[in-house]
Write a structure and sequence with these properties.
Layout lengths: L1 H25 L2 H9 L3 H8 L7 H15 L9 H12 L7 H9 L4 H19 L2 H10 L6 H17 L4 H10 L6 H14 L5 H10 L6 H19 L2 H10 L4 H14 L4 E8 L1 E7 L4 E8 L2 E6 L4 E7 L1 E6 L2 E6 L2 E5 L6 E7 L5 E3 L4 E6 L2 E6 L3 E9 L7 E3 L5 E5 L2 E5 L5 E6 L2 E3 L11 E5 L2 E5 L22 E7 L2 E6 L4 E5 L3 E4 L6 E6 L2 E6 L7 E5 L1 E7 L2 E6 L2 E5 L5 E6 L6 E4 L2 E6 L2 E6 L2 E7 L3 E7 L2 E6 L2 E6 L2 E8 L1 E2 L6 E6 L2 E6 L2 E8 L1 E3 L20 E8 L2 E8 L2 E6 L2 E6 L5 E6 L8 E5 L5 E7 L1 E4 L4 E5 L5 E5 L4 E7 L1 E5 L4 E5 L2 E5 L11 E3 L4 E4 L4 E5 L5 E7 L1 E6 L2 E6 L2 E6 L1
Antiparallel strand pairs: 1-65, 2-3, 3-4, 4-5, 6-7, 7-8, 8-9, 10-11, 11-12, 12-13, 14-15, 15-16, 16-17, 18-19, 19-20, 21-22, 22-23, 24-25, 25-26, 26-27, 28-29, 29-30, 30-31, 32-33, 33-34, 34-35, 36-37, 37-38, 38-39, 40-41, 41-42, 42-43, 44-45, 45-46, 46-47, 48-49, 49-50, 50-51, 52-53, 53-54, ...
Helix pairs in contact: 2-3, 2-4, 2-6, 4-5, 5-7, 7-8, 8-9, 10-11, 12-13, 13-14, 14-15
Length: 900
């Protein structure tokens, strides 16, 4: 009995061991893989839930099982996008070649290439089943090198084309043609585009002509062409204006009868013109005195020049050989072969006619005229007297004469300095070893510097000597109007623009603190003090043993009584630190951190502002107002003494333009101050334009666009990310280039496969909003308010700041747009056009400055106003001097002035 019982126990035990071993074998992750490959999804997932992963190869196999499970259509959680994500992870793993992994796949009779093909096939099926552009975009963006890529693009193209067929706009069809230049549907799309554009055409000759220009191969071309001449003729008659008649003549010059009729019409319409000055002169020039705000006509009658006022009234009879520059009520004139200066209002002589050339006279101010006598320049006071006898040789450059603040003048050459007051009276006539002044837009350029032997002096902007000529070095005023001076080997200091000393005595050492604090640290003997460069002159007396740090953010570090103390600009002590504890202090901008055990006491220029604790270290450098610290082995950041980045990361880079790259394990992320821009999940973050590792304050200045471009890598796949002030504007797999404009807008070019000659360009406004999606071949800045856009056909239009197409693309180039009239080039003609691309001028016109245009066929000139209306038809040999609805014209080889 006992034997029988023993056998039963042994048999039962063996069965239990066998069952346990079978169960343990079924629980191996490799068997889960095999079960999944057999299509037994539910069983495999149930078994896998009981498995503990204890090794890296098994972790790899676990992720492989996730890939297989998500890729099975039998799985209720079927998701080929997730399957592909797991495939990417394992395909880059070093455990692909692990022996356990390879054995598992061999026994299950598959490899990673099989998995890839199965997943990619399901991705394509997924997009087809969804039948949406978004679904195709997902699988195209998921894998740039997948086998299904061309099929996916074709599927997307078909959907877009079908969508385009339904309620398509002209822009939709144009975009399809641009995006799919090799599409089998291209011809259909072009026909559709031509039809949509034709249906929307206004019933006008200009609109039809513009259509023909843009779509010359349209199926409607012959229909339009057959009736265009008559339509143009009828419209010109109906409009009854010079522009319409002139455009018809330009388009149909061989229609002799109609041309003659319309030339007669133009003549009738021009009868309102009046002659301000009859066309009988050899030459007429408009002279504009911008300072005196008066305009004159200089007229040449039988070889002699006279003067008329702007109404055409004669002021000075023709009696002069020639005229040159006009300024301040003075006109340089030639008479008897010599040059002088006259009053244009009456012809009276201001400066005698003795100069051999007009370039020997320079009207330099209201009261003074520089003149050249022989090879030397002098100065006349109103022509009444010689204020400065000629002594300046060579050219009269801005470094040889200076108009002073009070209206006087200084002249110099070879060390001689002559200064006269506003009435031309001599104030200074001295010979120095050196005289100089700078010619720039700063404080120092207003002052005249002189050297006599080894001593220097300085004259103020009114030509008065400041103090005496007793400086050992030449003083230069900084932007605060303070100059460093030295009056003897043992006496030096600083002087303001009035000559008052901030300090001038013995000086051992000094340092200009610079920046906004405008303080100078100076040492006399063994003590340091501070001088205030502002008019307040809030100086801090000499009392400190050593200078640690000059003033910055309102705080300086000095030593007194053996202790380091931090003071504010009032000289008040903020905090004192024993010399032995100096290493416990960190200064971050305007905040001082003083280690106190495990805490840090914080001080600003007003005193103690609080205490923080729990930080093991603090960086010695602050950037963009951010201080990186360490807490519990993790990096975080303080702003204004407050924690704004929690201790989450292993490392953080110095803030640059508000950004810091953070590291967590082997992954990178990005912060903008305390805001997470990119989670720490990327292998690399590249900054091609050095926005986050270059000039770290440039983008914070507000002077340029702060849009930045990053290239991030996740699982080996790169993505371009455009960011503005910490917010993601857009992402793309395409290559990207940024172009920043002076109005702080940013154009971004996206190029598939990096082929930028086929790039699509969009526009981002200063708020970081995309106002134009990538569509145009190019976007460039035209003015503060407008941009030139170039479409796929190479035609240029205009966009406004809202991204709206305010001028349809029609021209080869565009040079200006004022909101109404476009100046552009079309078919070799530089003309003005309406916003819809309709020309205001006739064919074969060339537009010049001030509205003057030329008929390139007969070389005659006309005039168009700022609204595009022709005011003077092309009947003139020349048009100049356009001013206030008047113009100097050449008519029948004689000059006159016409009023229009």
């Amino acid at each position: 009995m006992n034997r029988i019982m023993m056998k039963k126990v042994l048999i039962s035990l063996m069965l239990s061991i066998f069952t346990l071993s079978v169960a343990n074998a079924a629980s191996d992750i490799t068997d889960v893989i095999k079960t999944l490959r057999k299509g037994k999804i539910e069983s495999a997932l149930k078994t896998r839930s009981k498995i503990k992963i204890t090794s890296s190869p098994d972790q790899f196999l676990y992720q492989l099982s996730e890939c297989l499970a998500y890729n099975s259509k039998k799985n209720p959680q079927y998701n080929p996008l997730k399957a592909y994500d797991f495939y990417k992870r394992i395909s880059y793993s070093d455990y692909v070649t692990n022996q356990r992994v390879m054995n598992c796949m061999r026994e299950a009779e598959f490899d990673l290439e099989t998995v890839r093909m199965e997943v990619e096939a399901n991705l394509l099926d997924y997009a087809r089943s969804k039948g949406t552009v978004d679904a195709y975009d997902k699988i195209i963006n998921t894998c740039e090198s997948c086998s299904y890529l061309e099929e996916a693009k074709k599927g997307k193209e078909d959907i877009i084309f079908k969508k385009t067929l339904k309620g398509a706009t002209l822009r939709d069809v144009e975009k399809f043609i641009l995006d799919y230049p090799n599409s089998p549907n291209r011809d259909k799309a072009i026909n559709m585009r031509d039809s949509i554009a034709f249906v929307k055409l206004p019933k006008s000759a200009d609109a039809y002509a513009s259509y023909m220009e843009k779509y010359p191969n349209s199926k409607y071309a012959s229909e339009i062409q057959s009736g265009l001449l008559q339509m143009s003729y009828d419209e010109a008659k109906a409009n009854d204006n010079i522009n319409s008649y002139a455009k018809f003549i330009g388009l149909y010059p061989n229609e002799e009868k109609k041309v003659k009729e319309f030339e007669g019409k133009i003549e009738e319409l021009q009868k309102y013109l009046t002659w301000k000055v009859e066309p009988k002169y050899k030459n007429i020039r408009l002279a504009e005195d911008s300072i005196a705000k008066k305009n004159y006509y200089l007229v040449n009658d039988f070889g002699k020049w006279g003067i008329m006022d702007f109404t055409g009234k004669e002021l000075v009879a023709p009696s002069f050989d020639d005229f040159s520059d006009i300024a301040d009520g003075k006109l340089i004139a030639k008479k008897g072969g010599k040059w002088g200066v006259i009053n244009p209002a009456n012809g009276s002589t201001i400066l005698d006619f003795v100069a051999t050339s007009a370039s020997d006279i320079d009207i330099i101010s209201k009261n003074f005229i520089a003149f050249k006598q022989g090879n030397l320049w002098g100065l006349s006071y109103k022509g009444e007297k010689t204020a400065i006898q000629p002594f300046v040789s060579g050219s009269l450059t801005p470094f040889k004469f200076k108009v002073l603040r009070n209206g006087g003048v200084a002249m110099t050459d070879a060390g001689k300095l002559v200064i006269v007051d506003p009435e031309g009276n001599t104030k200074v006539d001295e010979k120095f070893d050196q005289v100089q002044w700078r010619n720039a837009d700063d404080i120092d350029s207003k002052y005249i510097k002189v050297r006599q032997g080894k001593k220097y002096g300085i004259y103020n902007p009114d030509g008065e000597l400041i103090g005496s000529i007793n400086h050992d070095m030449m003083p230069y005023y900084d932007q605060n109007g303070i100059a460093i001076i030295k009056t003897s080997p043992s006496t030096e200091g600083w002087m303001d623009t009035t000559g008052a000393f901030l300090y001038c005595a013995a000086l051992s050492e000094y340092k200009d603190c610079g920046g906004e604090d405008k303080m100078i640290a100076y040492k006399v003997g063994s003590n340091w003090g501070f001088l205030d460069k502002t008019p307040a002159r809030a100086n801090i007396k000499l009392q400190y043993e050593e200078l640690g740090e000059c003033f910055a953010d309102g705080i300086a570090k000095v030593k007194k009584a053996g202790k380091w103390i931090y003071i504010n600009k009032a000289g008040e002590e903020i905090v004192s630190v024993p010399e032995s504890q100096d290493s416990k202090v960190t200064r971050a901008g305007g905040i001082i951190y003083y280690a106190n055990g495990s805490s840090y006491d914080m001080y600003d220029k007003t005193g103690k502002i609080g205490t923080i604790s729990g930080f093991s270290s603090i960086d010695k450098e602050v950037s963009n107002g951010m201080l990186i610290v360490n807490k519990g082995g993790q990096a975080c950041a303080l702003q204004g003494g407050k924690e704004c980045v929690t201790p989450t990361y292993d490392d953080m880079t110095k803030y640059c333009n508000g950004y810091s790259v953070v590291t967590s394990g082997d992954k990178k992320g990005l912060l903008y101050y305390g805001q997470v821009v990119l989670e720490a999940k990327y292998e690399k973050i590249l900054d091609p334009n050095h926005a986050i590792d270059g000039d770290c304050d440039e983008l914070l200045s507000g002077k340029v666009s702060d849009v930045i471009l990053l290239n991030v890598f996740e699982n080996g796949v790169s993505t371009r990310v455009i960011v503005k002030a910490g917010k993601i504007v857009t992402t793309t797999k395409d290559e990207v280039r940024l172009k920043k404009f002076s109005n702080k807008y940013t154009a971004f070019e996206t190029a598939e496969m990096g082929i930028f000659n086929a790039a699509k360009t969009g526009l981002i406004n200063p708020d970081g909003k995309i106002v134009v999606e990538p569509y145009y071949r190019q976007i460039t800045e035209l003015s503060n308010d407008y941009f030139v856009c170039k479409d796929a056909n190479g035609k240029c239009g205009v966009l406004d700041k809202a991204g709206s197409e305010v001028v349809v693309p029609f021209a080869q180039s565009i040079t200006s747009f004022d909101g109404k009239v476009v100046e552009a080039e079309l078919n070799g003609d530089k003309m003005c056009f309406s916003k819809s691309g309709v020309p205001f001028l006739p064919k074969n016109s060339e537009l010049y400055d001030n509205g003057v245009f030329k008929n390139k066929k007969n070389n005659k000139f006309g005039l168009v106003d700022k609204n595009g209306y022709i005011k003077l038809y092309t009947n003139y040999g020349k048009i100049t001097g356009v001013k206030d609805k008047s113009a100097v014209v050449l008519k029948n080889d004689k000059y006159g002035v016409v009023k229009y």
